[in-house]
UniProtKB/TrEMBL annotation:
Protein name, UniProt field: Glycosyl hydrolases family 2, TIM barrel domain
One Pfam family hit: Glyco_hydro_2_C
Species assigned in the record: Pedobacter westerhofensis
Domain Glycoside hydrolase family 2 catalytic: residue ranges: 172-286
Swiss-Prot/TrEMBL keywords: Hydrolase, Signal
Taxonomic classification: Bacteria, Pseudomonadati, Bacteroidota, Sphingobacteriia, Sphingobacteriales
One Gene Ontology biological process: carbohydrate metabolic process
Amino acid sequence: MKKRNLLFSVILCAVTLSTQAQTTIKEANPRWSIEHALEWQKENGWVSGANFLPSTAINQLEMWQASTFDPKTIDKELGWAEGLGFNAMRVFLHSLAYQQDPEGFKKRIDQYLSIANKHHIKTILVFFDDCWNPNPKVGKQPEPKTGVHNSGWAQDPGRLITDPKDFAALSVYVKDIMNSFGQDKRILLWDLYNEPGNSNKGNKSIELLTKVFEWAGQTKHVQPVSVGLWRWDFTELNAIQALNSDVITYHEYEAPENHLRVLQTLRSHGRPMICTEYMARRNNSLFSNVLPMLKKENVGAINWGLVAGKSNTIYAWDTPMADGGEPKLWFHDIFRKDGTPYKPEEIEAIKKETGK
């Protein structure tokens, strides 16, 4: 997901804030103790994997709607992930797919989890998202825009939610999914909200962020919850995210020296950490330099992108290619659609760290 260059001088302020934010959700969402979180980390070991969207889907809706759900491709591509030694995938849900067909949607989640489990892969499920296109619609999804990164990715819910009826519908969605799968050992973690405040929303996302923590706290689940830090000057949002997450998650697409400073600061929370987005080749965020560092620091590593496909994430955020040609340097992704690697040496670098 797109991330702007930010000043590290504001990190400390962002993650150590304020008794005001600490008390926002405490009663509704009793946070795991540090001891509980560390026991969870010990049980699950070092987490490595990718953000996963099958190459045949342009966005979350195309992945999950009944007409385009593609278990054959999912099985094939998760098999490639297993071959790398990856043990976790981060996967985005979408509330519109649930509202269109609640029971069918849950059956497809179960089917996905069964496929992933067959490949010895646990799943991080993501609910809401403030990135990219703000007006998602059910039905046939758009075709990719030539040479444009993530041209069809859909925000969830998209527009800002202010009507109590809309909040009520989203509450039903979150609680139903979490109660249905809250005891499921195939799920590693609930990632409640991707990059809140993105797309110029800023603090307007606080209400939904607060509520999703509250809704999660009202369900019966054995997995930890988290919302990843991603923009260090979003002081109020960061405080709510970090101080209500059982496990600290974050995004960092910069080079190892900058990335290391981020994770060293986040260690002040004393909790297990997972970097749920990294690896942008143009930025010198690579498997060869970041992945070994994360393993050494015992921080989970989930890169953006597995197989190049309709998401067009081989193209960089801000540099579209009008002719749709293959960029000399891919931005994200590991494999071509036929399963051959973009860079064979990256496969070896990954396997070295995963022990495959």
